[in-house]
Amino acid sequence: MTKRIFPKEEYCLGCHLCEVYCTVAHSKNKKDIIKVYKDKKNKPTPRILIEEKQGNYVTFALQCRHCDAAPCTKACITGAMKKLENGTVICDEEKCVGCWSCILVCPHGAIRRGENKKVASKCDLCIELGEPACVKNCPNEALEIKEI
Amino acid sequence: MNYVIIGNSVATAGCIEAIRNVDKENLITIISDEPYRMYSRPLISYYLAKKVTEDRMYIRDEDYYEKNNVKAILGKRATKIDFTNKIVFLDDNSQVNYDKLLIATGGKPFIPPTKGFELKNVFTFIKFDDVKAIDNSLFEGAKAVVIGAGLSGLKAAEALSKRGCSVKVVELANRILGSILDIEASSIVQKELEKHGIEFLLENSVSEIIGNEKVEKVKLKNGQELDCDIVVFAIGVVPNIDFLKDTELKINRGIVVNEKMETNIKDVFAAGDCAEGYDMVFEQQRVIPIWPNAYNQGETAGYNMAGMDKTFTQGFPMNSIGFYDVHMITAGIVVPTSDDIEVLKKFDIEKNTYRKIYIKNGNVLGYMFINSFDRAGMITNMIKEKINIEAIKDRLLEDDFGYLDLPKEFRYEKLLGGAKK
After folding, report:
1. CB contact under 8 A, A108 and B378
2. How far is A9 from chain B, CA to nearest CA, in Å?
3. Taking CB atoms and an 8 Å cutoff, what residues of chain A touch B331?
4. Which of B73, B135, B321, B367 gives 20 to 30 Å between its CA and that of B344?
5. What confidence tens digit (pLDDT) does each residue in B148-207 have?
6. What ipTM is given for this predicted complex?
7. Which residues contact B207 (CB under 8 A, 6 or more apart)?
């Protein structure tokens, strides 16, 4: 019953709104976008990666693939990176020490260093909200969540 | 079925988790000479630096053994194995019978015979108890000598320096981190450590530790003497398999295993830092004492112990480690082993970033990224899957290398693979 988000690059405008919604969804002020970056201590990082390159008209957004045999969970030296029973891979940011073993092994390059570069920041499918903010708010439906 | 595992680190986690994917019923017994539940040895330097507290040292939840129906025999050492009758003997004269056995005893410190090693305040740097002992003897301004400038020696040096010690590192080779970096890269890291007051004495070694009950100084090979309050030995790790010598178990440098992690003895498996498996980059049997490798080997052993047929053929060295503000990720070979290896290199002095990649026949054999490593796992995966990178090789050096550099079909397959259409 693992869920994954799939990008549809033919529809992606490269507008970066998914990053904005992802950031807000992982902030302490989920209801008030204006406060998101004003809380400097907990400045959140988008957990989504926009691929775009100059001179290339293709763009798309990429998040953690929540792999079946997730290499990050096997390489994590603290046990912070773990797979939940429903297949979602999450990072326990309290445990993470920022050794970046997850970055060493993630075949998709989908794990980011957080804003303060101290702990890993990755897609948790908006576990607290019940549905991923990026999918819900993509203006052109270029992101889709599917059960696989 | 009665599963027994000797050892209690990440290879054991891999084994337990694999067995439980297949067999929820049968008891797993683990035996460890350390009294702790499953903790992370790489975290000991973080503990010493006071970045991680004791409760964060554990890599699995407190109810892990209970939830996985694991009987944990902790604080007892396995002393002998009777492979014929399938019995493990422990140091309190008790016995544990097995049907399937995994040996995952990890590594132990390599210590060359050194006069004065028995003096007080001379430590090794592998186990939780090592750093607890160091912690107890530390004081502000203590003079520390670390022997060995490898991964653990430098993590020890960094932690001791963060705790207010003045630190000198003695290393036999002409550069630090010789197992993962070339000369240029190691000098970047050395400069960073020196910036924080750590001193290096390269191409030197400790010939004698001097003191009266407690260490007072060390004497170096070149005759120089260094005053010190603490000595930390971190020269290297060797397989922890002394209790298995002179048995029918096949041992080379480590316990020899095939791609199923089977040893030469039926129903006996080995994994992690005590095992010698196949290295796909070096194309030979090697001990690869690396965390992810240990998990993968333990997992493979676990599946096979539980009756599945699984192989692990993608072992090779890989590391992610940082000191102060310099972080590096490396994998595969770090120094060319033959003339037909192509070298790509990009050194940005201003940003203090360094990327170097080795290629042979269109395949990446190894890389070394310093301070520019954000999507390094994509390259690790190219080594693992032997992906031909001939068409995109110059892009591999760029900080922003990503899926857009890959052919569309490949990108689609990787990203959309597994989607229900």
Report:
1. yes
2. 10
3. 104
4. B321
5. 999 999 999 999 999 999 999 999 999 999 999 999 999 999 999 999 999 999 999 999
6. 0.96
7. B114, B115, B219, B220, B221
